[in-house]
Amino acid sequence: MAALTTEEIKSLLDKSYKCRQNILQMMRNAEGHIGGAFSALDIITVLYNKILRHDPKNPKWPKRDRFILSAGHKCLALYTVLADQGYFDEEILLTYGSFKTKVAMHPEEKLLAGIEFPTGSLGHGLPVGHAMALAAKLDGLDYKVYVMLGDGECAEGSVWEAAMSAGHYKSDNLIAIIDLNGLQVNGATADVMDSALLSEKFKSFGWAVTTIDGHDFGQIYKSLKEVPLKKQKPTCIVANTKKCKGLDFAEGKFQYHHWHCEPDKIDEAIDIVKSAKDKELENVRS
């Protein structure tokens, strides 16, 4: 498996930061769950640009890979990536916060192309994703199902029912990605409901597990290209991330899990994100 080239990494980085800027533009109209959206963006960017078998012109293509954002409150990230991929016009993003918008605070598959399942009530994505993975096996199709969970979300019991079921049925076409930023709405995940070590817990249910830096494009790509990590085992990728990554005054602070930003502060936030992108681009080896 060839590694990403320098130019590919730069392109992915540029796209992920373009999405961060679009999220901030959307937040001129309404508050939103920016912290998790920013921590998850690099992974979702790699998925849609380098990994998933999908077709924006044919969103319900039966052979497509499926992606479920189980932590549905992070949907600002998914919306901006889907728009960048051409699932819908980017102008739709700017209707966020308006009456009857298609880009609501949680994703709805009946309103917007590219959404596989409506999420928001935490803990539902992995059970549904496993059902899709089982359906693929029964139908003789080779698509994969990728489910992104938050580490706080892993306090939900339904996550572990699905983990047990997937291990039992040896669903090696199911991939769980945990956006482990260590924070949730009211504090550190370790203080609210300590679910560590998630890697060991998934292993105990019969999963193959790897741990990566969720902001290292090379590591993200390598781990996703290698799935299934083991035949007849579902895969869990534990991605260590930073809450609100790219917005320095908010990074690693649970207070920015959900943020109401004053409109006159948006331009300042966009400038900070642009500077963060420029610094990261400088660090990419040429």
List keywords for this structure.
41% helix; 286 residues; 9 helices; globular; alpha/beta; two-stranded antiparallel ribbon; Rossmann fold
Overview of the molecule:
The chain is α/β, with parallel strands linked by helices. It has one domain (6-283): Thiamin diphosphate (ThDP)-binding fold, Pyr/PP domains (Rossmann fold, 3-Layer(aba) Sandwich), CATH 3.40.50.970. The protein has helices at 6-26, 34-51, 75-85, 125-139, 157-168, 189-193, 198-204, 217-225, 266-283, and strands at 66-69, 145-150, 174-180, 183-184, 187-188, 208-213, 235-240. The strands form two sheets. Strands 1-2-3-7-6 form a five-stranded parallel sheet, with helices on both faces. α1 (6-26) runs antiparallel to α9 (266-283). It is globular. The model has no long low-confidence stretch (mean pLDDT 96).
CATH homologous superfamily assignment: Thiamin diphosphate (ThDP)-binding fold, Pyr/PP domains
Main β-sheet description: 5 strands, parallel
Strands ordered across the widest β-sheet: 1-2-3-7-6
Q: What's the number of domains?
A: 1
User: What structural class should be given to the helix and strand makeup?
Assistant: alpha/beta
Rg of Cα set: 18 Å
> Percent of residues in helical segments?
40-55%
The helix count comes to 9
What top-tier CATH class fits best? Alpha Beta
- Global outline: globular
Set down the secondary structure blueprint.
Elements: H1 6-26, H2 34-51, E1 66-69, H3 75-85, H4 125-139, E2 145-150, H5 157-168, E3 174-180, E4 183-184, E5 187-188, H6 189-193, H7 198-204, E6 208-213, H8 217-225, E7 235-240, H9 266-283
Helix pairs in contact: 1-2, 1-3, 1-9, 2-3, 2-8, 4-5
